[in-house]
Amino acid sequence: MPETRLPDPKRWTALIFIAIAQLMVVLDATVVNIALPSAQADLGISDGNRQWVVTAYTLAFGGLLLFGGRVADLWGRRNAFIVGLLGFAAASALGGAAVNTAMLLGARALQGVFGALLAPAALSLISVMFTDAKERAKAFGIYGAIAGAGAAVGLILGGVLTEYLNWRWALFVNIFFAVVAVLGAIAFIREPAEGRNRNRLDIPGVILASTGLVALVYGFSRAESDGWKAGVTIGLFVASVVLLAAFVVVEGKVKAPLLPLRVVTERNRGGVYLSLGLAIIGMFGLFLFLTYYLQTVMGYSALKSGFAFLPMVGGMIVGSTQIGTRLMLRVRPRFLMAPGFLVAAVGMFILAQIKVDSSYAEVLLPGLILMGLGMGTAFMPAMSLSAHGVRPEDAGVASAMVNTSQQVGGSIGTALLNTLAASATTTWIHSHVKSPADLKNQLFVNQAAVHGYSVAIYWATAILVVSAILAFTLVNAEVQNTAERVGDGDSVEDMPIPVIAH
To answer: What residue ranges are annotated as transmembrane (predicted)?
Structure first.
């Protein structure tokens, strides 16, 4: 007789603290961006090293997420969640107190390490604690809104802290988030022990996956600075392919793999990881270009440019918690994900029309709102399906995969689209320059930059269309309107909603 897990009476209170932790992790990828110029001046960071303040975090985060997800499965998600929070807070304190470049970069890498432990634990805890389909839809809606909007919130928070306090508070603020979330986790989060994976850790898998992902992300970072044809760039991409291919071979043979291939080969989960990763490539590139556009072309302050993203944040919240949550119980996930990515593509297309003298209300506002609505609507079912039908002992690593697709997608998007923008800008200058004086004319320089941004945003639009096609083609799960039952005799591979038996 299959056993149904009774709902946790403290689940909604627990969700508040899981959401706080997720917000901290997601916004930290962008909160430092706004504060970076001040930090660079204060610590004397060279132009060549400043990108590492961001890259050190994303490299460690993206490279270790699978490891963090499996540790959460082995060690317990609540334990991993709490340790991740404490470590993240300690690393943030170290970074905020940094007296030189090395100390700041080391602290950012440590943040990435503990973030890789924390993020998959947070997502898998939701699938553990919410058993009712309607409640789970709402919970993933809230989580999806935070995951989608966190990066934009980071831009706003970074602007506020930098302008009214100083850059160090962009890191110190994490201590407050972490302490609140830890106290809440201790008091309200409970996890059934039956869902743990008792197998030994796959050390070869950890080494191959981590080094392969780091090589991939670092390769795109070097492509941005050294060019796509540079020997080190090509070498990193080749190394990444070899390491990740070896990882797949090893995972198919070892008894207790780090990433059981069944997690990614299941059609719906694979479709989510692929389509969401591509969508994030376009979205993160947009943050980069619009931040530069608002500050260097339109003359916005750091604070004002942060607030300029608010309509997108609002759109994400509405799309995720209202549209996505309400429709998820009535329509199949692909009919939310594919249209969501297409609406975001329309918003991106509108944003590609920017000019040097564009009106915020006429171009940026409608584009950002549609971007937010579309991505918010798509995020919610994507987050829910990220652990679609997964075995209880694999919940953490399945959750890690959706985070990995986002982190790797964000890193690739920033490097790829920035390279495309720089190339388009250079081409425009060569075809329009008439005299050396043009290169000193600010209007000419702005026109060249905006042309580059526009071309890159058109590419991002195309990437979102591809995401929509992949989501519609690969994701074929039924309407998620039934609670999942898991018992000793049940197979969970084909079940529509991830729940762990209690």
So the answer is: 12-36, 51-68, 80-103, 109-130, 142-161, 167-189, 201-220, 232-250, 271-294, 306-323, 335-352, 364-387, 408-430, 450-475
